[in-house]
Structure formats: structure tokens, C-alpha cells
Design a protein that fits this description.
The structure is a single chain. This protein has 635 residues and is α/β, with parallel strands linked by helices. 40% of the residues lie in helices and 14% in strands. The protein has 24 helices and 18 strands. A hairpin with a 5-residue loop joins β12 and β13. α3 crosses α11 and α15 packs parallel to α17. Homodimer. InterPro entries: Dxylulose-5-P_synthase (IPR005477), THDP-binding (IPR029061), Transketo_C/PFOR_II (IPR009014), Transketolase-like_Pyr-bd (IPR005475), Transketolase_BS (IPR020826), Transketolase_C (IPR033248). It catalyses: D-glyceraldehyde 3-phosphate + pyruvate + H(+) = 1-deoxy-D-xylulose 5-phosphate + CO2. This is 1-deoxy-D-xylulose-5-phosphate synthase.
Length: 635
């Protein structure tokens, strides 16, 4: 049946029984295909019926559907003509999130949470202002995203104007990556588990079922009215009553007929409406349902029959795991060290510390800005907070880093996971902006470890600093083999390869140190002398790097952050300030959005591979100026 669905209106001809069959078929498709490629499995298994109902009731793309955060859009892709999942999240294949270049049905590409209602607010205002009052805007927001401040800022504005046709669907599965934290989560959890709701719903359905086919028809007719009746018993109307927004629910998010009834009421209401659907993450797949950690939120390649990984265990530890273990060791030694996560306890590696020191890990929900300012307060109170967060999500809290942490000289350590090119998750997940954004924050100190041993060392050095913000950044994946330094300078720079009065000084930043050594091998094969250094602390720039640059013909910096305004720029400026006129080439990522592909594929696309970098250096030494890195392919 799925193969016959080429666009949403193909759903209109299906009977209720056929829709149930289609939902089952979609789940089998997702389990089979995502197990081959990896991706967000649990979230999509949980929204099959909800997505079917949305596309039956609304007319996408005329009625835009916005997904928050977008990792639950696989079913949406299937229903809008995209059923080739063979290269999901790989170069040339479907993106793991909505992407406008794929379909007119995709609206918001960013996978940063809690922004959907602001988008919906803006689009609906534009429709109203331009006379398109017959168009609806639908935002599907997870209960995890309700912990983000932007959601409530948007709700405040949406409630100020009741003329717009805006439908907010709360996909309530009690989880973001892991169980949702905080007071709002506890409130919604009470609704999901409240006996009066489940009892009344079950008893009413069984009563009408006893009356046969007429009874079932009558039940469908009154079901919409029971939503409001049940909401008064469950207390859910209390959460939104002061916002002056119509509320429908709670509704079984796996009952297509109930969902359609509620969504039609919301569509025809003529003003903003919240539809509260209760779903199960991982629905229909036993391994996901039994996974208490994250319900198979995101998986690698797995055996679909068991849910077990087919990739095999890596012989190298992961960056995240290395951080997790070392932080626990530090916390064992220092009672003042605490940790903060923004709804990503397991993905950032803080679960181990929570298990060992449960009262010293704070999950603030999807609220990065709040996390950073809370950390400043914790530091003022005599603690040393470690804020573990994905690099790409750090963008959201830049103002708080500057004004609440740096201005107050707070001893806060930021640990940025997934820094640089992350690969399959695409443009919104690449951690390519942190170095350029943070390197000019007054007083900040930024560390970029090249391997797991350096991560441990630099983390300890970071938490020892109590009068300024510190940053430790590292990429996704497994740590490389440790790279031994020939020596360490007095100011902490590791010299990985050294030749006096070298032709070239290569500054390999963090995970790019290995690439720097590969480039040196190629150059030395052509009788070009090379010195390679790893700064370890990339901000501030060490004086020994400036001294070494004085006796070099050229300086090359290599970083996996955006080149414009990056660390290379800082090195060049500090050289000029010290009166050193050695030419500097700053190699890094282009200032453009990079599509999804494997990390090594992307680095090669942008010219950050050993052969391309070495060829550019040779050309420069020969006096022929060539681009040091190819521009990224547009995608």
C-alpha cells in the first residue's frame, strides 16, 4: 500500500482499516530501512498515526506543517513522495531532517528544538497580513521542546491574536532524547498516567463497542466532545487556560480516527488551537519499547530482528566516553565539580556522573541559555560547573557566555561535543561555528585536544581555572591513536615534529593535528622542511608559536571550524601585533552550510585533505598562488 502513496492526497481514498494497515506497513519499512543506514528510529515509530492524520486533515504544502525538531519527519517524507531511503543521511541521499531542496512540503530545515512555534507565529501573521486567511499553519512540537524558552515566548505572542488559523500539535511521549525533565514534564506525566483519563476513555470505548456498528459510529461522533470533558478531569486545561488558547485533548496519538476528529475541530475553529496527543516513542518495535535509555532515539546500523548493533565494537574509545570517564574521576576528587546538561544526559556523556554522583548533575531541559546563566550562578555560589553541550547548540547561548559568564569572570567549563564536521546529520548539526564565535570573548580560554589522552589532560586543566570561562571542544566519533609530542614548550604547546628554521610551520588545531602530520610527510618527501605544533590551548595564542613563526617562510593553520574569523585569523593578527610578517594561510571550513555526508567526505570536498593542502603549500613556496581549499559544493 505504501508504494501507492505518492503525495498526501492519495491518503484520502483509504478506509479506516486501510489506514491502520498502512501505519503497520510504514513501521515495518522504517525498521527495515533505518536499520541499514542508521538514523532516528524511535521518534518516527511514535508519530506514524499522528503524521497520517495531519496529512489527511490538512493540505500540505498549502497548509505548511512544521516539525520541531525535525528528527520525526521520516513518515512525512514517505507520504510526500520520498520513499527511497537507501542512502538516508549519506551523500546524495535523503537528509535526516526536513530539507527544502527535497520537497515543497518541507518548511523548516533547522533541527534546533523549540523554534517551531515562532516559525508558525511568523508564517500565520504573514498569511493574515497578505489576505491568505484560508491557509492553516500546523506546528508539531514535542513535549521535550516545551522545556525551551522560545516555545513559551511564542505562545505568549500567539495568544495575543486569536484571528489566525494556527494549530499546535503537542506530540507528548514523555521524552526528548531521554525522559523529559522539569515541572512541565511532571505535569504532563501526571496527565499520561492519571487513572481517571485512561479509565474513562477505556470504559466509554468499550460501552459504545457493545452497541455494535451503530455504537461505534456514535462513539466517533461524540469522541471530540469527550476530549474537553476528559481534559477537565485530567487537569490539562489548567496548563494553557491562562494563555487564552483553545485546548483539545489528551488524545490517543495512535488512534487515527480520534486524531482526525480532533484535528478537524482544530482546523475549523478559526483561531489558535492546541491539540495534545499522547504517543509512545518506539511504538511497534519491541527492542525500542524495551530500551529504557532513549527508546532507540538514534541508532547506528542494527539487526532489525534484535535491535543489536551490526557495526561491531570499536577498538578505540569514543570522545564522549573518554570525557564521561574522566569527569567522573575529577568529581570523585573534587566535591565542588558539578555538571549541567540541556536535555542530553546520555548523548553528552553525563549519565555516568549522574549514576555516581546523582545530586551533582542538573538537567535543565532544552534550554541552553538558561543552562549557561545557571552555571554562572553555580560558580558564584562556590561550585565549578561543567556545561556539556553539542557545539552546534552552543550558538544559542552566546549572549549568556559573554554577559553572564565572561563579564563576571565566572569559572565555568564548557565541554563542546560534536565540534567540527559531524557528518550525516547535516547543516544544522555541524559544530563549525564555536571557534569563531567564542574566540573573541574577553578572557576566554579554549582547548582543542588532538586525542583522548589530551582530552583528559585539558579537561583537568580547564576545571582548575576559576577566574574565567574555559572551553574544551572535540569531534564526534572515536578518538584516534595517541600522538606523542617530541617536546612541550614552556607555555604548553606540543611540538609534534620539529626542524630548525623550517620552511613551513603547520599549526594543527585539535583533531586536525593528524592531518597536519600527514601533510608534513608529503612535504618532507619533496625536501620541504616542516615543523608541526599542536597548541592544545588555541586561545590565547601561545608566544612560542609566534617565536617559531619568526624563523619560518610560511605559517599554515588548520582547523575544523569556519575559516572566517577562526583561530587562524587570531594567529595572523597576533603575529602582526608582535611585528612578525611571515605569511599566514588560514585553512578551515568555508562560510557556507555543508550538506550531510561522512566527515571524511566533507573534509575532502572542502579541500581539507592531505594531498590538497600539501599541493597548495608547494605552489605557494614556488611563488604560484593557488587556492588552499576548494569551496564547498552547494547542497
Amino acid at each position: 500500500m505504501l508504494e501507492s502513496i505518492n503525495e498526501p492526497r492519495d491518503l484520502d481514498r483509504l478506509t479506516a482499516a486501510e489506514l491502520v494497515g498502512l501505519a503497520s506497513e510504514i513501521r515495518q519499512f522504517l525498521i527495515r530501512e533505518v536499520s541499514l543506514s542508521g538514523g532516528h528510529l524511535g521518534p518516527n515509530l511514535g508519530v506514524v498515526e499522528l503524521t497520517l492524520a495531519l496529512h489527511r486533515v490538512f493540505e500540505s504544502p498549502r497548509d505548511p506543517i512544521i516539525f520541531d525538531t525535525g528528527h520525526q519527519s521520516y513518515v512525512h517524507k514517505l507520504l510526500t513522495g520520498r520513499q527511497d531511503f537507501s542512502r538516508l543521511r549519506s551523500a546524495g541521499g535523503l537528509a535526516g531532517y526536513p530539507q527544502r531542496s527535497e520537497s515543497v512540503h518541507d518548511v523548516v530545515e533547522s533541527s534546533h528544538a523549540s523554534s517551531s512555534l515562532s516559525w508558525a507565529d511568523g508564517i500565520s501573521r504573514a498569511f493574515d497580513a497578505t489576505g491568505q486567511n484560508d491557509r492553516h499553519v500546523v506546528a508539531m512540537v514535542g513535549d521535550g521542546s516545551l522545556t525551551g524558552g522560545m516555545t513559551w515566548e511564542a505562545l505568549n505572542n500567539i495568544s495575543d491574536d486569536n484571528r489566525r488559523r494556527l494549530v499546535i500539535v503537542v506530540n507528548d511521549n514523555g521524552r526528548s532524547y531521554a525522559p523529559t525533565m522539569g515541572g512541565i514534564a511532571r505535569f504532563l506525566n501526571g496527565v499520561r498516567t492519571q487513572q481517571v483519563y485512561t479509565s474513562l476513555k477505556g470504559k466509554s470505548e468499550r460501552f459504545f463497542d457493545l452497541l455494535g456498528k451503530p455504537g461505534r459510529s456514535l462513539y466517533r461522533g461524540v469522541r471530540g466532545g469527550t476530549h474537553g470533558f476528559l481534559s477537565r478531569f485530567s487537569g490539562t486545561d489548567e496548563l494553557y487556560s491562562n494563555l487564552d488558547i483553545k485546548y483539545l485533548g489528551p488524545i490517543d496519538g495512535h488512534d487515527i480516527e480520534s486524531l482526525e476528529e480532533a484535528l478537524k475541530q482544530a482546523r475549523d475553529f478559526g483561531a489558535p488551537v492546541i491539540v495534545h496527543a499522547i504517543t509512545q516513542k518506539g511504538k511497534g518495535y519491541r527492542p525500542a519499547m524495551e530500551d529504557e535509555a532513549d527508546k532507540f532515539h538514534a541508532v547506528g546500523r542494527i539487526d532489525p530482528s534484535t535491535g543489536r548493533s551490526t557495526s561491531g565494537e570499536s577498538i578505540r574509545p569514543s570522545w564522549t566516553g573518554t570525557f564521561a570517564d574522566e569527569l567522573v574521576s575529577i568529581a570523585d576528587e573534587r566535591d565542588d565539580v558539578v555538571a549541567i546538561t540541556a536535555a542530553m544526559l546520555r548523548p553528552t556523556g553525563l549519565f555516568k556522573m549522574q549514576q555516581k554522583h546523582p545530586g551533582r548533575v542538573y538537567d535543565v531541559g532544552i534550554a541552553e541559555q538558561h543552562a549557561v546563566t545557571t552555571a554562572a550562578g553555580l560558580a558564584f555560589g562556590g561550585l565549578h560547573p561543567v556545561v556539556a553541550i553539542y557545539s552546534t547548540f552552543m550558538n544559542r547561548a552566546f549572549d549568556q557566555v559573554v554577559m553572564d559568564v565572561a563579564l563576571h569572570k565566572a569559572g565555568v567549563t564548557f565541554v563542546l561535543d560534536r565540534a567540527g564536521v559531524t557528518g550525516p546529520d547535516g547543516p544544522s548539526h555541524h559544530g563549525m561555528w564555536d571557534l569563531a564565535l567564542l574566540q573573541f570573548v574577553p578572557g576566554i580560554r579554549i582547548a582543542a585536544p588532538r586525542d583522548g589522552e589530551q582530552l583528559k589532560e585539558l579537561l583537568r586543566e580547564s576545571v582548575a581555572i576559576e577566574d574565567a570561562p574555559t572551553v574544551v571542544r572535540y569531534p564526534k566519533g572515536t578518538t584516534p591513536e595517541p600522538i606523542e609530542a617530541q617536546r612541550r614548550s614552556d607555555d604548553g604547546v606540543d611540538v609534534l615534529r620539529e626542524q630548525p628554521a623550517s620552511d613551513v610551520l603547520i599549526v594543527g588545531i585539535g583533531a586536525m593535528a593528524g592531518l597536519a602530520l600527514d601533510v608534513a610527510d608529503i612535504l618532507e618527501g619533496q625536501q620541504i622542511s616542516v615543523t608541526v605544533v599542536d597548541p592544545r590551548w588555541v586561545v590565547p595564542v601561545a608566544s612560542s608559536i609566534i617565536d617559531t613563526a619568526r624563523s619560518s617562510r610560511i605559517v599554515i593553520t588548520i582547523e575544523d571550524g569556519v575559516r572566517v574569523g577562526g583561530i587562524g585569523t587570531r594567529v595572523r593578527q597576533d603575529l602582526r601585533a608582535a611585528g612578525v610578517d611571515t605569511p599566514v594561510d588560514e585553512l578551515g571550513l568555508p562560510d557556507s552550510f555543508l550538506d550531510h555526508a561522512e566527515r571524511e567526505e566533507i573534509l575532502q570536498q572542502v579541500g581539507l585533505d592531505a594531498e590538497t593542502v600539501a599541493a597548495g603549500i608547494v605552489a605557494q613556496l614556488q611563488g604560484t598562488r593557488l587556492p588552499m581549499a576548494r569551496p564547498a559544493a552547494e547542497g
